[in-house]
Amino acid sequence: MSGPDALYVYALLPDPGPAPAPLGAGIEDSPLHFCRDEAGGLAALVHHAEAQPYEGADDAVRRWIAAHDRAVEAAWRAAGSVLPMTFNVLVPAGVGGDGEDQSAEERLRSWLVSHREDLTSRLSALHGLAEYRVEITLDNTEALAEDGRARELAAQMESSPPGLRRLLGKRLEGLRRESAESFADRLYAATRRRLTAVAEDLLERRRSVRNAEETDVLTVALLVRESEVDSLGLVLAELDEEYPALRVRFLGPWPPYSFTEVQPGAERAAENAS
After folding, report:
1. What is the tens place of the pLDDT at every residue in 15-39?
2. What's the CA gap between 7 and 49, in Å, rounded?
3. Running DSSP on this structure, what letter comes out for residue 9?
4. Which residues touch 169 (CB under 8 Å, ≥6 apart)?
């Protein structure tokens, strides 16, 4: 097996200066260090790695991703601003722009220098901001309880013979879905508008896990300034109080994973490994 000839990149951040103590460990307890553009005040949090992606069983990948996220979050909390990398971003040794062979450190440092203005601007804009995830769904049963047609149909079922009751039950199930979807559509614009008012940016996302008893209203990533976090909590509390059928899930704070797309010095190794 070849020795380490690449850098695994966790995040880009303002250069914190000389580290007075070891930075800790990343994936598989790999020692972390900074690759710096000293003149521009930028740094990349990295560890030495082989030029191939981390691949393995699901449990191993989850463990590696958790270690990656811990390193990114530690850098973010220390620096106040960070451009986090996704899992498996590697910068290998290779040929530089001048046609000469370069180490991974030289390639990454050269990339930091050439993108200095853009990276510095983005890090400055993200200072004091955090990502939050909000999922808002509608409890189908509670939404149905507010529908007068459903109440009439349920009352009719009570006095109906078994055969008709089954038929009415199917009709009630269809009405449940129709009522929940209609209610969710009406709530979507209102909830999105209220969340946008307390966020610097908003990106819609797909829910990773769905519940058959719930209808999606809105799933978003929010970029929120520290001074607005209480306002965000107030908006969510008001929605929860105004609409008892809503189910609100609130996660964070995290580094701004959803609002940064940076590819330092090379394509993602996972997309280029042979």
Report:
1. 987 765 667 899 999 999 999 998 8
2. 5
3. E
4. 157
> 193 pLDDT exceeds 70?
yes
Q: In which region does residue 37 sit, left (phi positive, over 0), alpha (psi from -120 to 50) or beta (all else)? A: beta
pLDDT at 217: 93
Cβ burial, residue 137 (10 Å; 0-12/13-18/19+): buried
Supply the mean pLDDT for the chain. Answer: 85
Question: Are 47 and 31 within 8 A, CB to CB?
Answer: yes
Q: Is 241 exposed, middle or buried (0-12, 13-18, 19+ CB in 10 A)?
A: exposed
Calculate the CA dihedral of residues 188, 191, 192, 197 and round it to 10 degrees. 160
- The model's confidence at residue 256, banded by pLDDT at 50, 70 and 90, is very high
The answer to whether residues 215 and 222 touch, using CB atoms and an 8 Å cutoff, is no
Residues 6+ apart with CB under 8 A from 273: 52, 53
Torsion sign, CA atoms 54, 56, 57, 60: negative
pLDDT in tens, 155-166: 566 666 666 666
Residue 11: per-residue pLDDT = 96
Q: In the predicted model, is pLDDT for residue 265 greater than 90?
A: no
Verdict on whether the full-model pTM lies above 0.90? no
HSE of 70 in the Cβ direction (CA atoms, 13 Å)? 15
155 Cβ contact partners less than 8 Å away, ≥ 6 residues apart: none
Amino acid letter, 74:
A
Is the CB of residue 216 less than 8 Å from the CB of residue 184? yes
Cα separation, 195 vs 175, whole angstroms: 30
d(CA 149, CA 274): 60
